[in-house]
Amino acid sequence: MSYPACVIAPLLLVVLGLASNDTAPARSVSQGPGFAIETHSHRPSTEPVLVVDARGSSVDHVWEVPAQQPFRELVASWNLAVPDGCGAVVELQVATGSAESAWLHLGEWGVEPQQRAPLLSPLGQIHTDWFQAKEPITQARLRVRAHGSPAAKVRIARLDMVLSDRTNLSGKAALDARPPVERSRWARRLPVPFRTQRSAGETIASRVCSPTSTSMVMAYRGIDVPLETMCARAFDLPNNIYGNWPRNVQAAYTFGVPGRLARFSHWRDVEQQIADGSPLVISIRVRQGELRGAPYEKTDGHLVVITGFTAAGEVLVNDPATSDVAKGLCTWSREDLEVVWMGRGGLAYLL
Fold first, then answer.
1. Is the dihedral of CA 107, 112, 116, 120 positive or negative?
2. Residues paired with 51 in a beta bridge
3. What CA–CA distances, in Å, run from 299 to 50, 147, 206, 296, 302?
């Protein structure tokens, strides 16, 4: 059985990397493809405030990131405090050494804008919630704009950008050379409560894996929101989807759970997250037979929660696709997840 796509994820052939781990059991576990990733966070000590003027708009807040190395893909996320009667728009501009794009519409929150920036430029395109370049990009800018009721104030708590190039595996050796995370710290299951998307109602149940997975991690953080409420908050009306990546992060923030988007190409970083007590909501895409032990044979796009690892290094997962808890608490191999997750972008919500 397959499920309708919750998100759109790109496709890539996978290069596997193997490395031995530090302690018993002696079985080696795969450490991942190790493609190039840069993570940039903007968390000013004094939160920028955008005040809507009498014309119903605000000045812009622009955050610029020069890339350490050229990139081909970008995801961004934000935590914004947007009051009722007000809206915020997030736009992206990218540049090479010789050209720059127009501002592109990346996302919005609150009151809909009267008009939206384009999604396409000669340098690349927005695919719903991520940017794909047509050539290597060296610089990126995010712009936040507020609109709506005069004197309304939008506060910017944080902005994040993740730049990546899955054709560049040059960083893998350095990743493998890092000290391992002590196995006793990551070989555990975090107590993330299981939820099923099937409880959301027949009309949307097949579409709400993202807010369901997000709500599991929110409950783990102590914020228990009814699934129907979370689905409504995360719904992306212009695209008619529930699985918009940055919108789910922003929805969690409005309930008091801050977060960001991230990409992962190395298991050591995932082990560190679990060691730190942080589950991951991950985006997967599965072809027939690629994911052994899943409660479906294939899916064009789905989100699940990584909750830990077994002592042998297998991955423990809460999968909301089924209402059967026994089937929803899954144990999957790293090798399979390198294909259906890391090899297709390694996208995760960190809440």
1. positive
2. 153
3. 41, 38, 11, 8, 7
Residue with tokens 């579409």: 207
Residues 76, 100: contact at Cβ < 8 Å?
Answer: no
Give CA–CA dist 157/79, Å, rounded. Answer: 5
Is the per-residue pLDDT at 1 higher than 70? no
Record the tokens describing residue 346, joined without a space. Answer: 């390694």
Which residue(s) pair with 57 in the sheet? 147
Q: Read out DSSP for 275-341?
A: HTT--EEEEEEE-TTSSTT-SSSEEEEEEEEEEEE-TTSPEEEE-TT-S-HHHHEEEE-HHHHHHHT
Domains and CATH numbers, the chain: 2-35+171-350 (3.90.70.10), 40-160 (2.60.120)
State the pLDDT confidence band at 31, using cuts at 50, 70 and 90. confident
pLDDT single digits (tens) 248-270: 999 999 999 999 999 999 999 99
Contact yes or no for 114/107 (Cβ under 8 A): no
Task: Please say whether the dihedral angle defined by the alpha carbons of residues 174, 177, 180 and 186, taken in this order, is positive or negative.
Answer: positive
Phi, psi of 269 (to 5 degrees): -70, -35
φ, ψ at 38 (rounded to 5°): -120, 130
Q: pLDDT tens digits for 57-100?
A: 999 999 999 999 999 999 999 999 999 999 999 999 999 999 99
Q: With bands split at pLDDT 50, 70 and 90, how would you rate the model's confidence at 45?
A: confident
Cα 197 to Cα 179: distance, rounded to the nearest angstrom:
38
